């Protein structure tokens, strides 16, 4: 399989790129080089290689959830700039 200048023009149109003829030739050559490299990779024997989903071993780094008592409302409201009826009072954001 190889990429033609017509293929590059089509992709450029889809991406809404205006390429010069020199750029079309350049990208055609670069894309063909990539495809040739991919073909070369097909020569590798991967029968004995174990399939992986990620290159690094992953583990869950989150701690387990645990119930613990909440702070008393009086202590929480000490941090409030203003409070009313045991709740934080904030400026109205709707008119």
Automatic annotation (TrEMBL):
PANTHER family: GLUTAMYL-TRNA(GLN) AMIDOTRANSFERASE SUBUNIT C, MITOCHONDRIAL. This is Aspartyl/glutamyl-tRNA(Asn/Gln) amidotransferase subunit C. It comes from the Bacteria. It catalyses: L-glutamyl-tRNA(Gln) + L-glutamine + ATP + H2O = L-glutaminyl-tRNA(Gln) + L-glutamate + ADP + phosphate + H(+); L-aspartyl-tRNA(Asn) + L-glutamine + ATP + H2O = L-asparaginyl-tRNA(Asn) + L-glutamate + ADP + phosphate + 2 H(+). One of its GO terms (molecular function) is glutaminyl-tRNA synthase (glutamine-hydrolyzing) activity. Gene3D superfamilies: Glu-tRNAGln amidotransferase C subunit, N-terminal domain. One of its GO terms (biological process) is regulation of translational fidelity. It is an enzyme of class 6 (ligase). Heterotrimer of A, B and C subunits. Its EC number is 6.3.5.-. HAMAP family: GatC (MF_00122). The keyword DNA damage does not apply. Belongs to the GatC family. InterPro entries: Asp/Glu-ADT_sf_sub_c (IPR036113), GatC (IPR003837). NCBIfam families: gatC. Allows the formation of correctly charged Asn-tRNA(Asn) or Gln-tRNA(Gln) through the transamidation of misacylated Asp-tRNA(Asn) or Glu-tRNA(Gln) in organisms which lack either or both of asparaginyl-tRNA or glutaminyl-tRNA synthetases. The reaction takes place in the presence of glutamine and ATP through an activated phospho-Asp-tRNA(Asn) or phospho-Glu-tRNA(Gln). Keywords: ATP-binding, Ligase, Nucleotide-binding, Protein biosynthesis, Transferase. It comes from Paenibacillus algicola.
């Amino acid at each position: 399989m190889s990429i033609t200048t017509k293929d590059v023009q089509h992709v450029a149109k889809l991406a809404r790129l205006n390429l010069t003829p020199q750029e079309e030739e350049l990208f055609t050559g670069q894309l063909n080089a990539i495809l040739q490299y991919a073909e070369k990779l097909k020569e590798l024997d991967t029968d004995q290689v174990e399939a992986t989903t990620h290159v690094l071993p992953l583990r869950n780094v989150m701690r387990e959830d645990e119930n613990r008592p909440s702070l008393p409302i009086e202590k929480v409201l000490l941090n409030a700039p203003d409070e009313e009826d045991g709740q934080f009072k904030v400026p109205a954001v709707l008119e």
